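Researcher: Here's the sequence for the chain we discussed earlier.
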Amino acid sequence: MLRVRARRGAPGGAVLSPPSRRAAVAGLVAINVVWAAGYPLAAIALREIPASLLTLARLGVAAAMFAPFLRLPGGAPWGRRPALLAVGLGAVGFALPIYLQTAGLARSSAAMTAVLVALEPLLTAVLATAVAGQRLPAGRAAALAVALCGAWLIAGLPRPGHGGFLAGDALLVVSVLCYATYNALSATLTAEVPPLQAAAATLWTGFLAMIPLWLLGGAPGPRRLTWGPAGAAAFLAVVGTGLAYVVWMTALGSMPAAEAALYLYLQPVCGVVLSAILLGARPDAAFYAGAALVLCGVFLGSARGGPARTPSRSA
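Model: Thanks. This is the structure I predict for it:
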């Protein structure tokens, strides 16, 4: 799906070939299945691993995986603008939201978590339009709203703060805003450096930014460590953090951020399907109605027609 090539005489200068649109869509579907599985896996890991340590471990392992790709093709130096952007995206897009989301999951209901996370595509589209200068056609905006309603229906129509979960919901809202900022501005970074190097740099800066947060929290260690939580943490680090964000940044070479964000709405659908497969849960009528709205929104929002990009940036 994503082909890696290296330029001769440029160690560490591997780059990803731009994917076809079909490959980009397949990649986005795949990583959203992975991210949907990430919520129950995080709950398993948190049984024995403190939230700040789990976040640090996820970013550290993923950063180590991509350390060889920090060097730009041909040995070119990092410019000041992309370097500062990588630092900002690493802190705002990795360290802070993963930490806040992990903490919020422990203080919010599962249903409200699903809805608040479903705000991410809508916020991504708004920020991509307001900050990054991308166009948001009316049809795609309507598709985002339809899919959001579907996600809310799947979750059971919960209300923020209901049931005493206001603190957790607030943490999740901030984390979603951070993720949306990362999503909207990622293409600005990949317009200046290749996606593989952009992912490596943001993972490293996110890892380094997470160290002070972990230390301020008392540098907690695992209570104990058994195979289940350890395996869940490893999957979250290698697949859910490292590989998934390379796919995300590469997909932005084939479509604008607002369109790529539509596929994030697949997460609540995939989450319920995975629960049915793994736990034997039976989806109710609200799930099928909500899933239909989500899939309808994704289809309508990803339909061709109208300009996909703006001349000011290559997203």
